[in-house]
Design a protein that fits this description.
Strand order of the largest sheet: 2-1-3
Strand content: 5-15%
Largest sheet: 3 strands, antiparallel
Number of helices: 4
Shape: elongated
Number of strands: 3
Radius of gyration: 21 Å
Order of helices and strands: EEEHHHH
Structural class: alpha+beta
Length: about 190
């Protein structure tokens, strides 16, 4: 996702074009040494474009690996380009609104499942180091840094909470509440 009103720099770096929030390009000067600026666009101009995923696991899913506009994307931290996955309220809302088929390759224990084959059985937080290593080895990681921010933890166990898309159903009890009270009186 990109900020529709943000300005983005297009930089040719080797055989790739890097898309980066224009105001953060200087932050990546070391990693982009020798890159040539080949253009500037607004986020809205990127919307609808497709891209090659870093991993092929979900390549066949409808509308996946497409750029969407999101007003909550900014350049205060990071690149101004945000990966979307259905593990947060904003992400899920944006994906559903754009017809993306939601997938959830994480089980109830927080471990990867198929089709994320290289990482099956690994806890999502533990897999971070291995995934970063794999991206570095393939030469597709521009920069790795850790951003410390507030993250929700369980108040009982103090373990990180993983937001997951879950199917749910609800009963409209108010539709028959009076009848239940009446029957309970008997």
């Amino acid at each position: 996702a990109v900020g529709p009103d943000l300005e983005y720099a297009l930089l040719r770096h080797g055989d790739r074009v890097v898309v980066l929030g224009a105001e953060v390009v200087e932050r990546f000067a070391k990693e982009l040494e020798g890159a040539e600026r080949v253009g500037t666009v607004h986020g809205r101009d990127l919307v609808g474009r497709t891209y090659e995923p870093l991993f092929p696991f979900f390549a066949g899913h409808r509308h996946a690996f497409q750029v969407f506009a999101a007003d909550f994307v900014e350049t205060g931290e990071g690149t101004g380009v945000v990966h979307m996955a259905p593990y947060g309220e904003d992400d899920q809302r944006l994906l559903e609104a754009n017809g993306v088929t939601l997938v959830d390759p994480v089980d109830e224990e927080g471990r990867f499942t198929e089709p994320v084959s290289p990482y099956v059985g690994q806890h999502v937080f533990d897999a971070n180091k291995v995934i970063i290593r794999d991206l570095k080895e393939r030469g597709v990681l521009l920069k790795h840094e850790t951003l410390v921010h507030n993250y929700p933890h369980c108040w009982r166990t103090d373990t990180p909470i993983i937001y997951k898309p879950l199917r749910s159903w609800y009963v409209q009890v108010t539709a028959f509440r009076d009848r239940m009270v009446e029957l309970n009186q008997q």
